[in-house]
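Re: weekly structure request thread

Next one in the queue (338 aa):
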Amino acid sequence: MGYGGWKPYISVAERRKKAELAATKAKKAGVVLSPIASYRGAIAKTFWGKAWCDNLEGYSDYANRLPRGRTYVRNGSVIDLQITAGEVRAQVMGSSLYAVTVTVTASPEKQWRAIGVDCSGSIDSIVELLQGKLSTAVMERICKPGTGLFPVPTEIKFKCSCPDWASMCKHVAAVLYGVGARLDQQPELLFALRRVDANDLVKQAGAGLHKSTKRPATGKVLDDALVADVFDIEMAEAYPPVKPAAGRNKPSAGKVTAKKVAKSAVSTIRKPPATAKTVADNKSVTTKLPVKPSAGPRKSTSSNVVAGKANVANLPATPKKAATRKRTSARPVKGKFR
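Done, posted below.
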């Protein structure tokens, strides 16, 4: 024991070494710790973390102990910090390992309802709320000391296993600053700590808005043609043309004309012309097989040959030799009149 019954002073390096050993021992025992890592500079960097620390430093009841708490939380002495509904449990390494419990009362229902009414119509999503991307007036209302979401000293109770008899020891102060550092990463824990639901603020977003039943004046509404000219687009018809009801009415003149044209087009379709092969077959049949007057057309397995025979049968039989003599006599003889 040191002077006056106090334990001797332990340097920061020695406290860090002890904190590492305690964390290793807890890990081997299967205990999951959630430490506040050591760092330099500001304890909190986001909106909710900064707002928590500013509110904490605004109370004179904590003024004497807060500076030592900032030192402890910066050098990594808070090896475990768990935030649940209405309670914070932590372990802080000092000359020994101390257990700290901070209890925060739930936000009064009337006070929480008043916050929702004052912020109605201003909070559109839970994401914006948790990120603190709201108007200054809304955030000031939520963080207002005494009537906002943050607790006052009378709503906070704490207990530490250290021998310090002060109402708030440096270990408790370190834990309270650790809450601000944790809100940087998980801002939703603030609402859990005060036992309220952040979605209540979002649900009341449109509570203060009333639907207007008035329609704009006719002179203030642009015609579809003007809108199309301004934006160089084609406006769709607001009301599509109504289809005629099915009945026994006579078809229109246009439909009758279309049917007649289709019918005449079908009637004027001719059979495809004979191919060159078919013509050659017909010629060979005409020259090689003269048809007798009394004989009928021969049967053949080829449809093209039968067609050729039918055409030849209708013509009168002409001897081949006579036709040859007639053509010969008609020609002039060379050298006759010389």
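The radius of gyration is 53 Å. The chain is about 45% helix and 10% strand.
Next request, please.
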